[in-house]
Amino acid sequence: MIPDIRRPGAVDAAWLTAVLQNAGVDAVVSGFTAANVGTGQIGDSVRFRLEYARTAPDAPASLVGKFPAANDDSRNTGVMLGNYLREVRFYQQLAGKALVQTPRVWFTDVEEVSGEFVLIMEDLAPAQQGDQLKGVTLDQARLVMVQAARLHASFWADDMLDDLPWVSGSRAAPSSPVTPELVGGLWQAFRARYGERLEPDAVAVGEAISTRWGAFGGLYDGPRCLTHNDFRPDNMMFGTSAGGHPLTVLDWQSFAYGAGSMDVAYFLAGALKPEERRAAETELLGLYHCTLTDLGVTGYGLDDLRRHYRHGAFQLFLTAFFAAMVVEQTARGDEMFLQMIGGATTHIQDHGALELLG
User: Fold this and answer.
1) How far is 298 from 242, CA to CA, in rounded Å?
2) Mean local confidence (pLDDT), 2-6
3) pTM of the entire structure?
């Protein structure tokens, strides 16, 4: 039996057995329990704890599956933006070449037209998911800078990506549904919903991005590479004293052929408190750049990185207000998106980036 694409409610023991056996594990699942995990906005994740009629030395005790969001708005956004297709193709065609730590995938497939998909991965526990609202420690930020460099070095200036239509920003990608009109409308809707909770400086940034979209798109002039594009703690699993990989990067729904410096700014602006970021910024940028160099990247100096890093937090700001208006609204989501807006605004101010939009 070859596994098919199905939603969590249709998963049964025979299907889980097929997943394992098609991956080379000679075991038979007799039963399981299922529970939702994670805090995803566009996809829903479920942990399956397995019971066996016949086990094997390499049979996992549990698996984690990712599926389309149950919420209609979130699911429709995932389909419209190509997120579900993109993540499956990443694991099928790019993850094996990437140097970044990603989870083992037992089975994944997608229907291109409908966007229906399934992604069954290793359970990374006892590693724990990061939390955007809590942020990260400096040691965790160092781990992230190394993994960012490993990701970016893997496909640095690799124009092969330009030929893949499911890679955002590639030459072969279809026209983006993200138009200046859409961005402007979503910003005004965000401002109407959260206006009383927005600082004046954040409003100024939102107005600049939403009315000068053409300038925003033309800021980066450096080499392109494979970028994550939603590089934040919620999409990372950190090892604990109980075990787990030191850092694993998840959620490859938004990756692009773009600016590595944007991932770096996106993370540091959103995951560290402003005073912590300011104090550690020089060290962390140096660690990232040194790792890039050690992995063979040439012709990209530290001054180039600093120049591009200067405006990288615009993407964090954009993602926050855009996502807030196209996925299911939740109390945690509200707090998270506003935190991202605040961190991005402070980063933009600190680096005088707003003037770059003209």
Assistant:
1) 39
2) 94
3) 0.94
